[in-house]
Design a protein that fits this description.
By secondary structure, this protein is mainly beta. Helices cover 6% and strands 60% of the residues. The protein has 3 helices and 14 strands. Strands 1-2-3-4-5-6-7-8-9-10-11-12-13-14 form a 14-stranded antiparallel beta barrel. The longest helix is centred in the first third of the chain and has 8 residues. The chain is globular, with a radius of gyration of 22 Å. 19% of the residues are buried.
């Protein structure tokens, strides 16, 4: 789970220029590698030697993060916020899946109602799962060694512009991100450059109820070849290029205080549609030719401000992907490879202090 440290809406007081933010999130993950029912059963039955490099389909995971933030009025009386953070998810029984990310950010207020934010984050290594490598199969046949890890590192350059309108109950945020994925040596045809464009509107309906709506458009241009001298158009490798529409809606409701302490509930839902754009024939690229995905996500959070600098959040996350293709003969294969259902449930402890 990504618990990336981000500067809040309310700048710290001038006397508190530095702040430290810590969090710990133990949670249960029901399907750590996003397997379909077919491969869950194969794992349980001990089939497909070489495919599974995990000890269990599910796991108890510990997410933790550290952030350091500096706030000051650097440009006149306008607030500037600088920060850096470290974020990690450590899996108890399947360390191959553990990962971490670093990030730095700057938020600059242009006025009391307008600010912009720029950030950079880096994931050194993220393990997805093992797949059979067809290039290896050509030389060695269908042996366990032809299953190779699918891992990537990722750069993420992001910016957003935030504005609160004069009537105070409406806010808007426009997003742009440029992401670069670098795959391990056996999967370099999946290297890609991705772009995200988005807009989210926040609306206060009452003093206790806020709603928000968002739309994102994401493109992914995959390299599509893995040998010197090849070009994407003439390559015999997979082309995972695609574009995606993301629709999101959410609300935040402040509940009645418990022992004079604030608590709130938030629910967010996303619907995503992805379309793959390869021109390869089905026989050459069965995983992507004519493929389209439907993704559904629901996030529920209950937050309780236990103390001035300490909060507790109980969360539930549900995710589902349904994959299909316009090539009827290949629908079962694509579904078996890419369908999954997953949920995560846990708690998050947050502590911060300023100096």
């Amino acid at each position: 789970m990504n618990s990336k440290i981000v500067a809040g809406e309310n700048p710290a007081k001038a006397k508190d220029k530095w702040s430290v933010r810590l969090s710990l999130s133990p949670y249960y993950d029901s399907n750590i590698l996003k397997y379909s029912n077919k491969y869950i059963e194969r794992f349980k039955n001990g089939e497909d030697e070489g495919r599974f490099h995990i000890h269990s389909i599910d796991d108890l995971t510990f997410g933790y993060s550290f952030g350091l933030v500096y706030s000051n009025q650097i440009i006149g009386k306008l607030k500037t916020i600088l920060g850096a953070g470290f974020d990690s998810d450590a899996y108890s029984y399947n360390s191959i899946k553990s990962w971490f990310t670093y990030d730095i950010f700057l938020r600059q207020y242009l006025s009391k109602s307008t600010s912009f934010y720029v950030s950079y984050s880096y994931i050194p290594k993220f393990y997805v799962r093992h797949f059979r490598d067809e290039d290896w199969v050509k030389y060695y046949g269908y042996v366990p060694e032809t299953f190779q890890p699918y891992e990537f590192s990722k750069d993420d350059y992001s910016v957003w512009l935030h504005h609160t309108f004069s009537w105070k109950t409406t806010r808007a945020r426009a997003y742009f991100s440029y992401m670069r994925y670098f795959l391990n040596p056996s999967n370099t045809e999946y290297d890609s450059n991705d772009f995200l464009y988005g807009l989210r509107i926040y609306q206060s309906l009452t003093k206790k109820l806020d709603v928000n709506f968002a739309y994102y458009y994401i493109t992914s241009d995959a390299k599509g070849y893995d040998e010197p001298g090849e070009v994407k158009e003439l390559s015999d490798d997979s082309d995972a290029s695609n574009y995606e529409h993301v629709y999101a809606v959410g609300f935040d409701y402040q509940m009645p205080k418990i022992f004079k302490l604030k608590n709130e509930i938030s629910i967010d839902a996303q619907y995503q549609r992805a379309f793959y754009t390869t021109d390869h024939f089905l026989e050459l690229d069965p995983l992507h030719a004519g493929r389209y995905d439907y993704n559904y996500r629901v996030f529920v959070n209950y937050n309780w401000d236990v103390y001035k600098n300490f909060s507790l959040t109980a969360f539930y996350q549900w995710m589902k992907r349904e994959s299909s293709t316009s090539a009827e003969a290949n629908r079962e294969y694509v579904s078996n490879e890419k369908d999954y259902t997953q949920y995560r449930i846990g708690v998050r402890f947050k502590y911060s202090f300023s100096f």
